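Re: beginner question about structure tokens

> Can someone show what the tokenized structure looks like for a real chain? I only ever see the sequence side.

Sure, here's an example I had lying around. Input first:
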Amino acid sequence: MKKLAPPAYVIFDMDGTLVDNYHVHIDAWLAISTKYGGPDSREAIIADLHGTNFEICQKYFGPTSEEVAERIAEEKESKYRELYAPHIKPIKGLMSFLDHLNDLSIPMAVGTMGTKENARFVIDALGLHSHLSHWRSAECVERGKPHPDIFKECLTPWQELNLQHGQLWIIEDTSSGVAAGKACGATVIGVRTSKTDEELCIAGADFTVPDYDELLKMMA
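And the corresponding structure tokens:
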């Protein structure tokens, strides 16, 4: 088993990385997309499910104004929270992993292309505020992943850092997220909730794990 030296800082993606909710987002988008004449299959939804909600609306519905895209996106996110609220839970081993990082005094942040309402929804439900230095959501940037903007935004409060290779970890679950993390010069760890080891490694992940229990073992 690969053995890891502790990082200096860690940035987590949220969806599929803190919580295994990818399928719920698909369900919510499918319901809204079908309602408004967009793709009506899970396969089609999955094919274009990356970027900001505005970018996703352009792919699902064609040229869409910001006002209409915002209304559709708000409806979709409300549907997602409705579907997921009774079932939300952290990915296996997450809380123990966060406690371990806290014990090592390693600062942590969350950088998600989810909305601020969804970020609060997850962070509140899991009780993560005491673990995090800060968090950033889609409203903070204009471009979604694979652009690295959201992770660079997370680095802004740590501007005094002179990070060396391997000191920053970014934990992700999607190919576009992995690419964004690598563009920041981070060591990117893929969590295999929505993609396979092969898919994540092709995107550039340094290695992958099924859950945080495995990552904790690698840090032992």
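Each token stands for a local structural state, so reading them left to right follows the chain. Strands lie at 9-12, 108-111, 134-136, 168-172, 187-191, 207-209.
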